[in-house]
Amino acid sequence: MMRGFETTGRVVNALRAARAEAMRLDCGCVSPEFLLLGILAEEQTTGARVLVSLGATREVVTHEVEKQIGRLPRYETTFGGMLPYTSAAKRALQGAMDAASDLGHPIVDTEHLLLGILRDDQSDTARMLGEYEVTNDRVRAEIERLRSTS
To answer: Chain-centre distance of CA 114, in angstroms?
Structure first.
């Protein structure tokens, strides 16, 4: 999915978890909301630790996604048994690669996926995170704080 970029197993797991959440909620596609839930699926990843430290816990995000479920796109078909990504999710994945590159990181990880979601500041997901004061600047600062204490 992220051609030309190396990814960690944590990102692969987050993408699998995102698909599983979309299936659980019968959405038929993977949108950025599900990418967030995928990030939060593994509590010890940097992306999840950043979200939780900024107040966007799994419970909070799940509640917000379930509130918005009616407006999320639905598809009737899958591609090779896989749920398709929405265009917004594809932008988030591209944003993750751009974020890793911008930070000089050779490997895409969950924190880059979070930054990729936030890059589309007009998306419903970025606006929802903004309501919890989860912004690009605060996420970057928290990533640096976590890296310096590791």
So the answer is: 5
pTM (two decimals): 0.90
Residues 114 and 119: their CA atoms lie apart, in Å, by 9
Amino acid sitting at position 119: R
Q: What CA–CA distance (Å, rounded) separates 126 from 135?
A: 8
**CA torsion, points 15, 25, 115, 48, in degrees to nearest 10?**
-80
Distance in angstroms (rounded) separating the CA atoms of residues 46 and 64: 21
Mean pLDDT estimate for the chain: 88
Q: Whose structure tokens read 């698909």? A: 19
Q: Are 33 and 88 in contact (CB under 8 A)?
A: no
What are 102's two structure tokens? 């911008």
Q: Is the pLDDT of residue 2 over 90?
A: no
Token pair belonging to 32: 């950025």
**Tell me, what DSSP letter sits at residue 77?**
-
Q: Cα separation of 91 and 97, whole Å?
A: 10
